[in-house]
Each structure stands twice: as structure tokens, then as C-alpha cells.
Design brief:
Radius of gyration of chain A: 20 Å
Helix content of chain A: 25-40%
CATH class of the largest domain in chain B: Alpha Beta
Oligomer: heterodimer
Helix content of chain B: 25-40%
Structural class of chain B: alpha/beta
Distance between the termini of chain B: 31 Å
Strand order of the largest sheet of chain A: 2-1-3-4-6-5-8-7
CATH topology of the largest domain in chain B: Rossmann fold
Number of strands of chain B: 21
Number of domains of chain B: 3
Structural class of chain A: alpha/beta
Strand order of the largest sheet of chain B: 9-8-10-11-13-12-19
CATH topology of chain A: Rossmann fold
Strand content of chain B: 15-25%
Shape of chain A: globular
Amino acid sequence: MSEQELGTKTHNDWCPGCGNFAILSAIKSVLNELRDEGQKLENVVLVSGIGQHAKIVDYLNLNSFYSLHGRVTPAASGIKLAKPELQVIGFAGDGDAYGEGIEHLIFAAKRNIDITMLIHDNRVYALTTGQSTPTSPLGFKGRSTPAGTREAPLNPLKLMLASGATFIARSYSGKIAHLKQTIKEAILHKGFSLVDILQVCVTFNNLYEYYNRKVYELSGHDPYDYDRALKIMGEWDYNFEAPIALGTIYKRDALTLEAFYRDLPSPSETERQEKIRTLIKNYI
Amino acid sequence: MKLDNFSILIGGEAGYGIDRSSLIIARLLNRMGYRVYIYRDYPSLIRGGHTFSIIRAAARTRVNVHEDKVEMVLALNQDTFDFHKIKLKDNGIIIFDPAKVKADNLPTSIIALAIPLTDLVKEEKGAEIMRNSALLGSFCRVSGIEWGRLEEIFKENFPKELEANLRVARRGFDVSQERLKIVAVDNKRLPLLTGNEALSLGLIRGGLKAYLAYPMTPSSTILHFLAGVADKFGLKVIQPESEIGVVLTALGFAYAGEKVAVGTSGGGFCLMTEGVSFSGMAELPLVFIVGQRTGPSTGLPTYTGQTELHFVLHAGQGEFTRLVVAPGDAEEAYYWGALSLKLAWKYQIPSFILTDKTLAEGTFNFDLKAIASIPEISSSLWERKGEYKRYLDTETGISPLAFAPDSEATVKINSYEHTEAGITTEDPMITKKMQEKRLRKQNYLAEELDHYQLVKTYGEEKSSTALLCWGSNKGVCVELAERLGLKVVQPLVLNPFPLRQFQKALEGAKKIIAIENNATAQLVKLINRYGFKADEKILKYDGRPFALDELEFELSKVLE
């Protein structure tokens, strides 16, 4: 399967210049690399929510679960718990993951289930034509907030840190090499990993110029240093202009949830019947 | 006192151990050969309040309903004494703890026995909860049940502090006097299971691999039971963050090829409905257990109702095939638990099992041998020819299944309308074709279901008066019909509606009396759609199930 073959013949509906193209291209390269390194791509399951981001699963010729809005994390968790040998990668928008589905995201981080969440964080609802999302800046003028939103954005990285995520990174659709490297690292991390991808929506929230000015790549940072990680996450609050760190900001090693559910022998139909007969004798 | 059919009411505050004591009495009588049923009545709190159980035993026939009038009351507190003394039949016996109960204003027809439970426990230096043991000892002596029988049950039920409990029970036994003689009867001994336990075993029998639920009465005990037997049966039992988390995680399991069920009550099911529609669209098989309780909204959390029939029949946006069943006792819960899971997987649809608090938490005799055999029902698997298409359009509408990881198949499921390969589409021709594919499955499901008994009849087949019931009201209706020479008609499958069998079951019935635990006669509304009507309706919607004597009285008003 070449990079070309990873794709499908489905017509791509994203706007020209959309940051989603970078994510699609990055995931293709990462999967090709992983395959070259011996990983079987039939073990990969892609899960997406609802939104412009979610179309990515239609563009990739791989196992996929096109879920509901906000419901990437629980579906991905179910697939992983059922078959821990699968490599489950979730794609979600910021409205999807940080809005409607935030409870699931927090709990997946808390449980440290070994799935990867790639957040297409364009900070706007694009498919529904431009409303503010949980990461839109204060005063964001969208179609539902013509006078500007009165809500400050939440900082998803700090939220994930507080929730117990064992891998937290940020990347940018304008830096494709960095994006590739970060996504690959997230997938290879054993445990719950999240990459907040600053993905530019050219139609409703074009922040290319802003990001190009503010982003910088972390170097020499020890992601195992919790205090330092917290500090870096706090540098930019998704609101006021400040330096925006890109890279793996926090990481730790911990037992994963699905490890507890491995190798449960399942009885055959006849064994089930026999065991039920034996069990109910205790209820006489 | 009639000792071939009698009831014992035991009550106290929540946290007093009423549940365990009622189960011990039930097992005691069960081992003596009686057929036994337990009705549990408890408030939605952890300690305090008033909780009671009625244990009904019969020497000859099965009993699956309680009676309001009882032969004996065992009162651990004043409320039990005050609320339930009027339920005693003439010459009924009330055993109470004089340290907790002031026995005033007792009718003369009642025999009141003050047994110093608190003092006995203190003398034996036991914990207050051991008043239960003293009471059970006293109950046995008063009822003429040999000490050895209680000792045997105690040994099995008290892993901790067995000796102390036995000592206290023996004191209760010794200070009491025999007032009547409950004698062993000659019946095959049958297990005692709650509806939820039987349903859980049925799911296991049907091949269950995973169960997911967020706690909610009256379905929580399925979660507890399955968690307890998870290792034995190789189950993954998981409690996610919310009912939305439950249903979506379960759909992930279904995608991965593991037979899975979820359980909740009306309120939790509200949250699950987006998953219902998703299951229908993506053709991901999933069993939903909806344990009904008194609504609307939070309602009466620990009481019963039959108000979710139409909710479950219509839950979820869009039109798709679904199976809806409503078992009426523990054996039917087992049978339809297994079958619902198997059929969900054959037709790749959502299946719904409607229970209610009465069935879910009631305790019933369970005869595995009396249950019809559960057939092998296999799912359609991909034959590994050509390119795999998850939604291949076939004559029956059923597409062959493959599961990741599969080196030859890419498995794509989709909540959007999709092509056979699972890719999103808005094409009108494909939309129409796929909609028809999903709905077509219902015809084949209905055809297959017709080989099973979907509508049961009981009582006097030739009677021109039929009691129409569903779910747990089976118990009360069958017993009354047998007593009064009436017929009972009980549909077990409610969607696809078993028209042929329902019509046949009603043959000869000139007067149909619907019995339901709701205020709007939901089953009647359903049969109206198919051209049937009920002549009378007896509806109860105060959270409590019909007692046998209560329904008999209500029926007397509408029977000529």
C-alpha cells in the first residue's frame, strides 16, 4: 500500500488551503512509516466525530468508525477495550472533543486507555458555518455571537494535564514536518495521548498569519517534567497574544486501562450452558 | 391459617438487613419444597425510611405475584407494625421487638408476639443488625420449622460472624413458641433468581462478551451480578462515565465483533437514544435493557411502571428495524435475553428488552428445564470473496460481517448515509436503496420470529373474557385467570408486532380487559394500530404493582 493507495477515490470536500489537508497528509506519511517499520495497517482503526475534520475517514482506505458529534473517545475506547491489539486513532474537532464530548475526553485521560486523540482545533464550528467553540478567543465574532463571545476559551492542554493524560502535545497545520513527528510520537505512546493541532480554517477563522508569528518549537524540553510542562501550557491561554509552544509538552509512563481486560477466556456455548447449570444450583 | 399458600411480610428501616432476611426466609421455604416469590418495596435512600419485603409461598402452584393480605408480619421497627398490621388476615401473627415497637391498638383477631430481639442481641454481645437473626430464629420456632433447616441456610449465607449469628438466632428460637406448623412439601427444588439475575444469565447463554452500564435502578443489579461472574464467563463488565458513554463504548465493542449489552432505566435511556439511532444506521448490533420505573423524569426511582413501551418503540431519529421484547417472569427473561442478543447479531439491529422494577428485582422460582430450547442462530459472516463491503446490499438486507483486524477486509462503518463500502454519500438513489435495505431486514426478522411463541395464552382457553397484559403483570393475571376461569393473552414480542399470533390468541375472546401499570394504556394504543381494541382497562400508576387480591377486586367491578 503506497501513500497513494492509503487514500480512497472519494472526492475531497475541504476548502482549498484548509489545515485539514496537512493533517491528512501527515497521518498518511506516519502510517506509511509505521507500516515500513513492521506495523500491520489492518490493525489500525480510525474513529472520527462529526464536523469538517471527520471527513478524513472517508479519505483513508483503512478500517474506520464514523461516529457521532462528540463521541469519538467512547467509541475509540470500546474498540480498544474489545480488542487491545488494535491501534485506535481518533480524530475530533474542537467543538467535538472540547464541547459536546468533553466528559468522554476527560474520562479517557483519567483511565489512561491506550488511544490517540488528534484534535483538529480550528477554534470555530466550520461545518455549521462559523459559530464560536470552546477554544474561540474572547470577543470572537461568529454567526451566533455577532457582538463577540462573552466567554474566555478553555485551555485544553491544562485540562488534559489535570485529567491525568499521559501524553499531551501541540502542533500546527502550518508545520507539516513537526505535525508528522508529533502525531507519530503520540501514536507510539503507550497510553492516552492527545495532540491539540492548531488547524487553520481559511473560511471562518484564518489564523495563519497569527500562528506563523507566534508559534515556536520546543527544544531541550523534558516532557517528564510536570512543573515545567504546566508552565509551558500556561504561556498561551488561547486568548491573548503570547508565544505558542509546539511539541510534546508532557509525558509520563503509566499502566493502561485495557491491560486489565486482556486474555479473558471466553467459554463455548456448551461450556456456558454447563456453567449456568452449575451456578444456579447455588440459588436453591 | 391456610398453609398451602401464605405470605410473610418483613419490614424495618433501610440498612436493617431486610433484604437478606427476606431471602433467607424465601430459601428456607424453597428448600421445604414451596414455590416462592418475593416482592421488594424500598424507598430511594440508603439508611432509614421504611423498607419491606413480602415472601409468598405456595405448596402446589407457582406464584409470581404478592398478596396484600398476609399471614405473618415480622416487625423490626414501629413503621412496619403501624403500616402493616392491617394487612394481617384473621388469626394472623405479628412478631415484633418490644424495645423498638409499641404494640398499641391491635385488632383482637391478631396474635401479637413480643420477642425481645434487642435484649437477646445485647446478651449475646452481638451487633444491632443481628436482630434479624434473632427474628429469623423466632420465626422458625413460631412456624414449626426445625432448627436444623435454619442452621443450614445460615451456614451458607453468613461468611462472617456465623457463630454469633447462630447463637443469636438460637436464642430467638428458644424464647419463642410454636404457633403453627409449616411442613415440607414434595416438589422438585428450584433455584430462586431475581428477574435481573435470570436476564443476565440469558444474555450469557446468548453469547454475551461485554456488558456496560451506568448505575440506575432497577437495572443496576444486572451490572452487579455480571461484574460478580465476569471471570467465570470471560466477560468485560464496564461502568463508563454516563449513559452516552455507555452506548457509544458499547457500539465500539459491537464494531470489534464482541456481543455486548447495555442496561438502564427510562432516564438513562433518554441519554442513550442517539446511540439507538446510530446502531440502526450503522447496523451495529446492540441489546438495550430498559428497566421501567415510575416516571416522568426522576419520578419514583425505586418503584415500578410500564411507561416506556412507546418510548422504546420509537426512540431514536429516523426509521430502522428494531426488536422489542417484554418478558413476564424470570424464565422468559432468560429465554428472551439469549434470543434478543442472538437476533440482534443475525439482523445487525438494536434489540430492546423491556423489564420493570417488579420483574427486575422480584425473586422468582427458575426452572431451566421448562425453558424452550434456545436455537443456534448464526450471524452472516463474510466469505472472503471479492472486495469486502460492510454494507453490501443483499436480498435480506443483511450484509456479511467482517471485523478488524482482517488483512483482506477494510471495515468502515458510518453514522452518515453511506455507500455499500461505508463511505459517506448524499446521493438520492443510494439513500433510497440503503434505507430500503435496512428496513427490509424487518420482514425477514418478522418471518423468523413467527417460528417462536411470541404471544402466550394461559388460564381457561375457552373463556370469552381475556385479560390482556405484558411484562411482569403476567404473574398476577395468570393466577387470577386460573382462579376465575378467564383467559390471559400476553404478547412477548412487541416489535415487529406479532399480528398473526396475536389474532389467533384472541380467538373466541369477546371481552378484552387490559391490565397495565401506566396511566394511558400503552399496549392498548399499540394494538389499536392493528385494529384491535380493549373493552375495559384496569390501570395502576401509583408506583406499586398489582397485588393479587387488589386486582381481583378491580376485576370484580368489570366482570359480570
